[in-house]
Amino acid sequence: MTGTGQDSATARSRALMLRAQLEHHNYQYYVLDAPEISDAEYDVLLRELQTLEAAYPELADPNSPTKRVGGAVAQGFTSRRHRQRMFSLDNALSLDEWRAFLERLARVLPERDFTFWADPKFDGLALEVIYEDGRFVSALTRGDGETGEDVTDNIRTVRNLPLDITARAAKARLPVPKLLEVRGEVVITKADFHALNDAQDEAGGKVFANPRNAAAGSVRQLDSRITASRPLKFFAYGIGQTEWPLGDPWPTQRALMEGLAAFGFQTAKQGRAVDAAGVEALYAELEEGRDKLPFEIDGMVVKLDRLDWQREAGFTARAPRWAIAWKFAPHQAETVLERIDIQVGRTGVLTPVAILTPVQLAGVTVSRATLHNEDEIRAKNLHEGDTVVVQRAGDVIPEVVRSVPEKRPEGAREFVFPHICPSCGSKAERLSGEAAWRCLNISCPAVLRQAIVFFVSKAGLDIEGVGKRWIEILVDKGMVKSPADLFGLTMDDLMKLDRMGEKLAGNFLAAIEQARLNTPLFKLIGALGIRQVGAQTARTLAGAFADLDALSEATAEDLQALPDIGPEVAASIRAFFGNPANHELLARFKSIGLWPRKAVAETDGDAPKPFAGKRFLFTGALSGMTRSQAEAEVERLGGVVSGSVSKKLNFLVVGQDPGSKLDKARTLGVRVISQDDFERLTRGETVSSE
Ligand code: IVH
Questions:
Q1: Looking at ligand 1, which atom is closest to the CA of residue 303?
Q2: Which of 23, 516, 571, 584 is the most exposed, fewest CB within 10 Å of its CB?
Q3: Closest ligand 1 atom to 142 CA
Q4: Which run of H or of E encompasses 653?
Q5: pLDDT of residue 176
């Protein structure tokens, strides 16, 4: 008995009842848009469940509705293979191309009457959600189709996604699949997107270019509480691998879509089973109505309805032969190309940017568009002053399609691409085989500015609270000439800036200090902005080298021995560390103590190893430290982090809301300790048994 005055069995059955009710109301609210109770009534149920779960930790369940708010914080995402590859789709860009698809299909599968399933092509992020015995177990992004990123903790917070389909299956008299992989798209509706951007703008946060970027960015947050705060929706459009207890009940795409809807998944209302003529009619209907749909779509996807025929038609290397994405023509408009500006990026590339008379395109004001490079401008024969056709490709990134020469004003100048850097005036170079002109001056102010902005950005050290605008001001005033200068800034320095307040300056310095002390090696490597070294490669490097000294000494062979690092990337890394200016930068990082080391035992050989021979495992959320930090601490002290609970485990460290590992540890008699106890152990103190 505990404070809630129930015995454990009563508590369990009450919790199960509450979860079923909350799941039902969630479905009514988020999927059907037909709530049966008020928000306040919902909160009462939710709070009762939270109280129960807090009082009876053994009731913990990762899929409890209380977990929709997020909590887990990841260091990064692990890659996992899809059981079945997630293919992409071939496109049809016109009626003719759609009909050509039909003809190809008729050759592959001769003499049949085709029925198709056609539904909107969502413009979001492709995702696979996996259920075992009816319970949500994991979620993977599409990735490269073969492997995706494990975003389970984040996706659990998506409100319209069922976490348990067993109750609805029973109601619909459907068997519960042993394995069900559901594929679909994570989107943010247009209305939610605008509200989100307004809120972000108000709070001084990142404003997203379009709903798709907002959805993708939200799914890839390391802190699942942030994902939980974003209005994500999952729309199901297909399946991956399935295992049924009694045989597959779904012979057609239509049957599986209806089955998924019965299980509680949201599907597009516009989806329909139609013949070829019906496909064309639905296309016209969708194109006509697209702007009125609540979410962005960029076409229609047409799939052969019979799944046995799908299997018979099979796949090309890239895409299924039995499906096609029939895209809408992009939104286009005419406007005036007022002038072409040249921007200098952090790698010195000079990028021409079209400055346009603002024009509305599919509800978005477009006033700039990248022109990519010199050749592109020449190929499109663009003159400053020209009337040009602009479009949003995939209705996302605006681009200049062509000029309208008939409307060229007299005296319009042909654009001459500058071969000097507009920022520092040094001679730009066009390296052989490249389309881009580059400023190669490593102390070019524009290059430095971008490199420093990148250094603090999300893709870099992610120094929160140090906005891009302030960094630009510091660089422009000459107060910061290198990323290392950031760490020498003082209160006095910052207070010299217009509109800087003491509170902001304090936050600014605190954020920089945090970064100095806590930046992990992979983040620092990524922040250096080495060409061709993105987040994934930075992780690989951080896993293989003890610190930046070790990395800078690595030979091309050492580097190429690592996964996914080819000769080009290796050469780029070598070139970076071969540059004396970069050496100096690293020496400064080291002297100020921004010097993360890989947290493995052998990197500090002399340190005492009180955990030697001991196996640790963590369950539940830790406070004040991430799981990875705790694990690194174990390794630093000579211990080993186990993959699962077994008799060999010495300590199970239990945080908040522990998972099933706790039950298992108790059954096996493994020693269970709290986070406080764990921290005592790391300080060399002793702790008593549970
Ligand atoms: S079916 C074998 N249906 O389009 C592939 N895909 O170009 C079957 N997409 O990344 C995919 N809406 O995420 C299908 N109604 C829909 C879709 C859809 C959007 C995306 C999908 C994929 C991309 C393929």
A1: 1
A2: 584
A3: 10
A4: strand 651-654
A5: 97
Q: Looking at the DSSP assignment, which residues form a beta bridge with residue 139?
A: 129
Q: What does pLDDT average to in each consecutive run of 10 residues of the chain (690 residues)?
A: 72 94 93 89 93 93 90 85 95 95 96 96 96 97 93 95 95 95 96 85 71 92 92 97 95 98 96 97 93 90 98 92 93 92 90 94 85 90 94 72 92 89 91 84 87 88 82 91 93 92 91 91 92 83 91 93 86 90 91 83 57 87 79 81 84 87 87 89 74
- Label the pairing between strands 615-619 and 651-654: parallel
Protein residue with its CA nearest to atom 12 in ligand 1:
121
Q: Look at the domain 332-407 and name its fold.
A: OB fold (Dihydrolipoamide Acetyltransferase, E2P) (2.40.50)
Measured over the CA atoms of residue 300, residue 301, residue 306 and residue 312, the dihedral's sign is: positive
Ligand 1 proximal residues by C-beta, below 6 Å: 87-89, 119, 121-122, 126, 142, 185, 237-238, 301, 320, 323, 325
* DSSP letter string, 241-303: EEE-SS-----BHHHHHHHHHHTT----TT-EEE-HHHHHHHHHHHHHHGGGSSS-EEEEEEE
The rounded radius of gyration (Å) of the Cα atoms in the chain is 28
DSSP 491-524: HHHHHTSTT--HHHHHHHHHHHHHHHHH--HHHH
Up-side HSE of residue 116: CA atoms within 13 Å toward CB?
24
Nearest C-alpha neighbor of 55 from the set 657, 580, 671, 684: 657
- CA 64 to CA 61: how far, in whole Å? 5
For the annotated catalytic residues, the residue numbers are 121
Strands 297-304 and 116-122, by their bridges, are antiparallel
Q: Which residue has the tokens 């522990």?
A: 658
Length of the chain: 690
CA of 86 from ligand 1 middle (Å) equals 9
Amino acid at 240: G
What the block records as the tokens of 444 is: 């070019």
| Level-2 CATH architecture, domain 615-682 | 3-Layer(aba) Sandwich (3.40)
Residues forming a β-bridge with 179: 132, 243
Q: Would you state the pLDDT for residue 435?
A: 83
Cα distance between residue 89 and residue 623, in whole Å: 44
CATH numeric code, 8-60: 1.10.287.610
Ligand 1 atom 18: residue of nearest CA: 121
User: For a substitution probing ligand 1, which of 82, 91, 122 has the most ligand atoms within 8 Å of its CB?
Assistant: 122
Beta bridge partners of 621: 656
Tell me the CATH number for domain 445-518.
1.10.150.20
Please report, for the chain, the start and end positions of each structural domain, with discontinuous segments joined by +: 8-60, 83-327, 332-407, 445-518, 521-592, 615-682
Would you say 408 and 387 are in contact if contact means Cβ atoms under 8 Å apart?
yes
- At how many degrees (to 10) do helices 468-476 and 445-456 cross? 150
